[in-house]
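Review this chain:
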Amino acid sequence: MARKTIAKPASDPKSSPRQTLNREAWVKAARKVLEKRGIAEVKIDRLARHFKVTRGSFYFHFSSLKDLHDELLNEWRRANCAPFEAKRDVTDIDGLQFFTEIVHIWVDEKPFSPLLDLAVRDWSRTSKALGREVAAMDDLRITLLQRAFRAMGYGPEESLVRARLTYFHQIGQYALSFKEDPEQRRRHGPIYGKVLLAPLVQEPNLPKDWQDTENK
């Protein structure tokens, strides 16, 4: 009599961390911790518990915790630095258009991430090398804004001050975790533009009701 065999159920791919838990998944989870709790809380054991795997799973994808840290910084460089660096060598510019393009890197948040920027800035307080890199990025962003104001017709010193005011306003808004209704943010955008750009340049998208109020 033939022996009856019982087929084993197919293994669930979700049960194998090496099939589904890749390097990108670890980086994504670590980035969330970094943004919410800071770099000191980005720990192998914490991440392993989150994924319900052993530390060995981490070392299957990373050589060390520093390797993960480096990848987090690469995320910041790609999303928050590269868009500005792409404008470093642009020379023949329209001031208002260049200003608008720079500001929209922040406003559109595609791919710029305010939370990641703040987290890396906080991280930089514990690392001199990273501190220098963050400072260099701050200088580049301000320089680009200054270049826009110079192209609008402002002098060197006033362009620098206006660039700093623009940049400090944007970074300060993120640092305060200031929340604003998206519709109100869009409505206020041109008014911020009028304050930051005037008197040599008129914000082209200023709402009519603001202009009417001003002219009464």
